[in-house]
């Protein structure tokens, strides 16, 4: 069983930066893609970014493109979300998720980490 542990959330002023981390652990597991999602109060969860583990291809939501960067460390089995030029509307609980195979959704999710951007 794979587990995802997130860290790095917090309170930051608008225009600031934060880096989220998500470490995957478990006995044996496959990773095809890891994604970041977020859910703001009263809103549905939305896609933020993903990275294909082999090759590093990335995809971003339009709302974060050019401000957020997703990356991974193969040796540490960790995915990162570097967030820059943060806006109050980026305030949300951020979740990482793991898709073990291509063509599948995300069966494994982290516990979430709060990001709050003050104006």
What does this protein look like?
The chain is mainly β and 119 residues long. Strands 2, 4, 5, 6, 9, 10 and 11 form a seven-stranded mixed β-sheet that branches. The chain has strands spanning 3-7, 10-13, 18-25, 33-39, 46-52, 58-60, 68-73, 78-83, 92-99, 108-109, 113-118. The protein contains no helices and eleven strands. Strand 9 (92-99) and strand 10 (108-109) form a beta hairpin.
Largest sheet: 7 strands, mixed
The average pLDDT value, as a whole number, equals 96
Count of distinct strands = 11
Strand content: over 45%
Helical content (DSSP H or I, runs of 4+): under 10%
User: What sequence of helices (H) and strands (E) makes up the elements?
Assistant: EEEEEEEEEEE
User: Residue ranges: pLDDT <50 for 5 or more in a row?
Assistant: none
Which structural class should the secondary elements be placed in? mainly beta
- DSSP helical segment count: 0
Q: Report the span from N to C terminus.
A: 40 Å
- CA-atom Rg in angstroms: 14 Å
Shape: globular
Q: Could you outline the blueprint of secondary structure elements for this entry?
A:
Blueprint: E1 3-7, E2 10-13, E3 18-25, E4 33-39, E5 46-52, E6 58-60, E7 68-73, E8 78-83, E9 92-99, E10 108-109, E11 113-118
Parallel strand pairs: 2-11
Antiparallel strand pairs: 1-3, 3-8, 4-5, 4-9, 5-6, 7-8, 9-10, 9-11
